[in-house]
Design goal:
2 copies of one chain form a homodimer. Chain A is of the alpha+beta class. The first copy, chain A, has 3 domains: 7-108, Beta Barrel (OB fold (Dihydrolipoamide Acetyltransferase, E2P)); 124-163 and 205-463, BirA Bifunctional Protein, domain 2 (2-Layer Sandwich), CATH 3.30.930; 170-203, no CATH class. Chain A is built from 14 helices and 16 strands.
Chain lengths: 476, 476
Amino acid sequence: MKNEISIADLYKIQPIGREITISGWVRTFRSNRFIALNDGSTAANFQCVVDFEKFEDSLLKRITTGSCVRVKGIVTKSLGKGQPIELQVQTIEILGDSDAEKYPLQPKKHSLEFLREIAHLRPRTTTFGAIFRIRHHLAFAIHEYFNKNGFFYIHSPIITASDAEGAGEMFNVSVLDKRNIPLTENGEVDYSKDFFGKEANLTVSGQLEAELLAMGLGKVYTFGPTFRAENSNTARHLAEFWMIEPEMAFYELKDNMDLAEDFLKYIIKYALTHAADDLAILDQRLAEEEKSKPADQRSMPLLEKLKFVTENAFQRITYTEAIDILLQSPYHKKKKFQFPVEWGIDLQSEHERYLVEKHFNSPVIITDYPAAIKAFYMRLNDDGKTVRAMDILVPGIGEIVGGSQREERYDVLLSKIRQFGISEESLWWYLDTRRFGTCPHSGFGLGFERLVQFVTGMSNIRDVIPFPRTPGNCEF
Amino acid sequence: MKNEISIADLYKIQPIGREITISGWVRTFRSNRFIALNDGSTAANFQCVVDFEKFEDSLLKRITTGSCVRVKGIVTKSLGKGQPIELQVQTIEILGDSDAEKYPLQPKKHSLEFLREIAHLRPRTTTFGAIFRIRHHLAFAIHEYFNKNGFFYIHSPIITASDAEGAGEMFNVSVLDKRNIPLTENGEVDYSKDFFGKEANLTVSGQLEAELLAMGLGKVYTFGPTFRAENSNTARHLAEFWMIEPEMAFYELKDNMDLAEDFLKYIIKYALTHAADDLAILDQRLAEEEKSKPADQRSMPLLEKLKFVTENAFQRITYTEAIDILLQSPYHKKKKFQFPVEWGIDLQSEHERYLVEKHFNSPVIITDYPAAIKAFYMRLNDDGKTVRAMDILVPGIGEIVGGSQREERYDVLLSKIRQFGISEESLWWYLDTRRFGTCPHSGFGLGFERLVQFVTGMSNIRDVIPFPRTPGNCEF
């Protein structure tokens, strides 16, 4: 019932001597005497002490791992070491049984792979409870940061007829009967018969629409799902993931970098403050996992890494400087890089890792990439060959933020659109913003799951979103 | 640039005597002397006073409606009546021209229909600036409310192989080549060849997945896009809209109603406090619009209506009582209802309006609907014929919230699933929650655009979302 107290509040208030009622799920029932109860409000279980002589055996037998119970009793100081307070149980009501033989979550360590198969139950585990609560705190910190700083949250469309990146494999959205697809005289699919009267896809980015809003509201941000129909079965890719995309009128590239750095530090600090208990659990989990690695391959402990990021300035270098560092590196000289290094290449993850983890040992912002390897909407520098792009790389994850100052000059933008082979008719509204009251503006995209991975230390992206969508996987 | 002050802050701080720089878009340029500048941070323009003798004619001519300028000058008290402070301009930089002949937004009243066609530019108008800022404040208030009250924000999947409502027209999501659809031996579409290896659609609700999380985390909520492929070209329907769906373990129907009422009042109060200026603009707009109606058909002024809702208890009646009220009503006796009234019917919008606007003149919560007209997952009452549903109806909008206590009993749920002809194999994970540690729980859904309509007084739902998706309309 709503008026019951949560375990999180119980630990805060510590109402010793008071009679209370709590509900939750049994994690363990030890010696027919100690129920470790969890209600999801916090990682910590609450110890409920049962005098087994006062209860029927038939009831005690139903207190199994996974069962749901409501208990009433008196809060007392705990004599045990594990907790400050506990409950002396007076009444027990079984709300939901859990057959100990059949319940998949036994009180033992399960593999992450196994838990992924029962993603509907994994929020009941200590690890995933912690991950999803941290995910919440990060999301809230993002909204709080932007709200405090005068940004407006906007919803860019999910179904779209445009393709922001001029590339990217997209999911088609349709109501056409697949057994009877209408065709035009030329044998093309006749999308005029479809729901929207034209071909429609799931968005890969809300940026272009966010720019439209920034030209009216000044500073805006999106926080919504985006999609990639890439057949990538890796620990870094999801077909459906959440992105945060701020877009600011009158911001130039440096303002954009300053914002992104301040923003990342704010939300990580917020998590350190508001999710300390859950982070401690994941810090411990990661330390256990790292033990199996050779000492020189272990990563920085989780909490240490997060504090390091909030307390140190991000390194800022140009792409050209990055290439120079790589060319001068002992790695390059010893031919340890698998991919070639030369000006013009798209940095590979081995290059990014070298810069972040070996050379700087810190988050790095790389700017001014070659125009040819970046999107059409990035502002061309006066050198005519680089654009005002910025990528932020962090240890263990690689690119976490990608952004740029946008090309605000109509003629330059139009020639870029043509050069990239994008249909200018389909972007008439985007071009309009450069025809009427254009201004310098910038923005970036943060992959939310990459951020959650970075903060939780989870190495597989499928473990930081409740129900991951990947090739061949759309369960739940 | 980032370090420029926003107009919103300028009005707050009123730094008289200080030299400042601001950037924004010209709303009007009066008598070659007064620029009304807007930067989107607030509805209010900022008056910039230009001594035309100090500037070249060629520059003054470029200060047109829609152009983007950066001005530097000294803040002074304003001698005019419209504003407390103004800027004595020293320098003017044109950031972006706007050809007065071609710019679609002239400084005059445009119809909402026309503005919908230029949805990429309408955020630059006073009305839509206000609407989208209010939309932001409502969204933030929602996150703040839940965060304060111990709820965790979760992301339920957008692409799904399940159909929560057991009905609803859905958009199919696919990467299959439509000119070459693979078929099985039986002539069915062979979805095993598709991206997810099975048929996948856009979600109509995140509720079932939210329930899974609530069984681990206790109290959760979603705030994400949902979809309906209904061919409804009305002022009340969108193909893509945003929903908020809280789901709470241990909440029964009454707790659910208490939460929904408290929640709605909180977010409306938040808007009244944090978006007072923008609401005043829309209050005025609605009053103008209402003038064209006969006096007895005018609705309550916007601000009055919002305050009324926050200050009065919602009426709570059962469906059976609602039917009795309708049967006893003079409307029914005079045969003014178009649709028949009898126990078992789905209430029509004319019935809802009568209850809310004529009989109670207040928001109304109707509970305990006939099982046959509600979804399979709603908890069956002991009478065997009604379910613990609740709908909240508000003046002018009708249903804004729909919720229920969920059926937590495995056997009852299974028989309902079979009765509704839903595949129980596809819901194995949902049924699992009732097999392992089930508990009473409840939740509801709030249509975000309906809420924004209610708070802004906009009568067409296409005017409260930046880029509406409707049949035949997927522009921008």
